[in-house]
Amino acid sequence: MSTQAEVVQEATGREAEAGTSRQWTKYDTGWTLSLFGTAIGAGILFLPINAGAGGLWPLLIVTALIGPMTYLSHRGLSRLVCASPRTDGDSDITAVVRDYFGEGAGKLITLLYFLAIYPIVLIYGVGITNTVDSLMVNQLGMPSAPRWLLSGVLVALMMGVMIAGQRIMLLVTEWLVYPLLAILLGVTLYLIPSWQVGSLLSAPVPSAGDLAMSVWLIIPVLIFAFNFSPAISQFSVAMRGRYGTDAPAKASHVLRRTTLLLVIFAMGFVWSCVLALGPDGLAAAREANLPVLSYLANVHGSPFIGYLGPAVAIVAIMSSFFGHYLGAAEGAAGIVRGVADSRGGRLDEGMLRKAIAAFIFLTTWAAAIANPSILGLIETLAGPVIASVLYLMPMIAIRRVPALAPYRGRLSNVFVTVAGTVAVAGILLSIVR
């Protein structure tokens, strides 16, 4: 019990934080909502089906674990960036890992970081196009627009927000996340009369081995659903620029609130959907390969749910796109800088940002036109890299890097390392299966 208490104590943030970092501002709220929006992507529509597949007991266990796992892992990644001695603008994760691990390892980590995030940006281009096209045809009774035109307009709109700057991105994300929170809460409450509590409670308690296997397979799914690591680097740089030496404490404060929002709204949505569908409904939804709201709309025959499905998907894709774009652009810039440094060249940062924006726009637009069905494949291949970068790399850095020495010897480090190892192994197991 003492071990669990220590982990919970750290997860709730009982740290010696500077007084100025305790003053909550609108700027902090904007970042909290931006990080929340990065985590809640289109995968939220399939999350209840995956998370509820193992039944009641595995879902109870992962619900208790996912909050500390999310907070402590993202805090570790943020600390890695905040602890950098760099004082210039080039202090994001791609530069920091080169300082910590050396040029060779740093370049490899930067490449893996890019490859873990960039494909998801492409998929969001596909997802927003398909969702809007379906809404136009099925709900609004409009003819289907030419795919090349519709995808180009939608991707350009999302890219335009990012090019406009961080302040505009935070403002738009705030506008998007508030309705997303309202929709998730609305669906959660709307389904209460349909809850089948008895069907879950009557299910037999699984054996210890089956229970452990179910939890093992659910954890990677929840890590993806609660992952906002693509935005952590720019978030940490922003915290350093605004709060200076108080940045680690303020970042921890923001991350705690983000995690709390995710646990309340995302897991509340998951539990409500699982209880409303029951074991048979979850199995049928999985067999039909439908998002949970689409399946619920078919079962309930409710226009309310029918319209909420596309609404959640559109808002979730757009809010998550912004955070993933930050990570993809950062990774691409790190790769180009690494090549230029090795050749002794100098880069025009303004031109580099424009070139990367053009590259991401054109490739995302091309992917949206091609409409590939590779979401599951991309998530499977990117998964081990995301879990390794988010959970394991910061823990390795804490052991090796002098600047991170104050964070050594903490039980939370063991917790994150074990959780990351379990997650990576679970993802690899799911690939094999």
UniProtKB/TrEMBL annotation:
Biological process annotations from GO: amino acid transmembrane transport
Region Disordered: start-end pairs: 1-20
Annotated GO CC locations: plasma membrane
Predominant subcellular localization, coarse grouping: membrane
Highest taxon in the source lineage: Bacteria
Topology with respect to the bilayer: Multi-pass membrane protein
Subcellular location: Cell inner membrane
Residue ranges crossing the lipid bilayer per the database entry: 31-49, 55-72, 108-128, 148-164, 176-195, 215-239, 260-284, 304-327, 355-375, 381-399, 411-432
Xref: InterPro entries: Amino_acid_transport_2
Residues of the signal peptide: none
Keywords: Cell inner membrane, Cell membrane, Membrane, Transmembrane, Transmembrane helix, Transport
Name by which UniProt lists this protein: Putative serine transporter
The organism of origin for this protein: Kineosphaera limosa NBRC 100340
Lineage: Bacteria, Bacillati, Actinomycetota, Actinomycetes, Micrococcales
